Amino acid sequence: xxxxxxxxxxxxxxxxxxxxxxxxxxxxxxxxxxxxxxxxxxxxxxxxxxxxxxxxxxxxxxxxxxxxxxxxxxxxxxxxxxxxxxxxxxxxxxxxxxxxxxxxxxxxxxxxxxxxxxxxxxxxxxxxxxxxxxxxxxxxxxxxxxxxxxxxxxxxxxxxxxxxxxxxxxxxxxxxxxxxxxxxxxxxxxxxxxxxxxxxxxxxxxxxxxxxxxxxxxxxxxxxxxxxxxxxxxxxxxxxxxxxxxxxxxxxxxxxxxxxxxxxxxxxxxxxxxxxxxxxxxxxxxxxxxxxxxxxxxxxxxxxxxxxxxxxxxxxxxxxxxxxxxxxxxxxxxxxxxxxxxxxxxxxxxxxxxxxxxxxxxxxxxxxxxxxxxxxxxxxxxxxxxxxxxxxxxxxxxxxxxxxxxxxxxxxxxxxxxxxxxxxxxxxxxxxxxxxxxxxxxxxxxxxxxxxxxxxxxxxxxxxxxxxxxxxxxxxxxxxxxxxxxxxxxxxxxxxxxxxxxxxxxxxxxxx
Length: 512
Fold this sequence. Notes:
The chain has about 500 residues and is mainly α. The chain has 9 helices and 4 strands, in the order ααααααββββααα. The strands form 2 sheets. A two-stranded antiparallel sheet has the order 1-2. A two-stranded antiparallel ribbon has the order 3-4. α1 (about 5-15) packs across α5 (about 95-105), α1 (about 5-15) crosses α6 (about 125-175) and α6 packs antiparallel against α9 (about 305-510). The termini are far apart.
């Protein structure tokens, strides 16, 4: 199937130019390049003088990568990758694509239109456009992630703010004190050193004595206060139920209390039969109980001094009991106030959560709208990509046709070359045979000529020897003749001289 994108075209170019190399199989832009051999094979294809590929070992991953990056840098390829980038299980593909595009520019972009067995020039513009589209998609994904992170951070901030406010409220509750005693509420000793003071508790505690009034378990920052004592949550709820039950069983006095000794009804006014307060009209301003005068069961009757004293003692005892009960009711109210404050805080937190949820929904809506816009942009980009892919497909088909044509032409050339080589081989063999025959004939002729030459030389030598012998004999005879002639001439000279002497002697003699 022809490549549909510039990346596929670049991958095809790399794959075509690394075919046939040992331990190299380019199928992707990640793991196929991890060993470093693919980079080195690509360099060796175009610059075999730079790499001794036969000496490389796939096991030496770091060494291969370092060698490839160094050699590529020497060829003008910017080192965009490090060895560490390639040692991970799945290297980052975009970096490898960008790095390999430089290989294409260096090896196939400078007038090498048919680099890689007729593949033709790959349009780097398509690769760049494809990478740009991926970067836009990645940028949109990063923007969406950033918005989600902002929403999450805002929710965390609001939650932390609510927790901070809750903690501040608890600290304020703990720092608010009603301590009226300088003695520890548990051990009764004088307070000193590190102490704990709790709102609603009228005594402070040593830090080591600050435990539950019921189970003696160590307490935290927010105990439950019942009847002026701190409890853990379990004991506090149980004590609150017990205290409330005891208050509901308290006797109700329905008669108007007598006046104190020495006081008249007009002097004392109306006294509350529940708490003994004299500030009573229709209802007691302290405990809220109805006044005896407003109660239909109230009866006013004259009393004797003894009865008045007895009533005063009973009233005093009841007043004491009512004060204790009022104190318990006050503690219950304080507990209820704490519960109310807790409920209000929970309501605030709920409102804050609802507000955060609304804001989150608004942000999610905005994110969805943004996502819709991004989707429309992606669809538009996809359409443009489809057009580009179609163009790339047509280009790839043309390149494929050109490659097939080149392969056919190459096959035809190879076949023709083989036939020509076969003919040349046959002619060479024929020539070699003829040459061998000629050489054999020449050798035989040379041998014959050598024999004839040797015979002639022998004959010449013998003739020369004879001639030499003849010459020597002639010279000897000549020398003998010359010697004989010399001797004869000497004798004749001697005779002439003798004759001349004799003649001279005779002439001398005649003169005399």
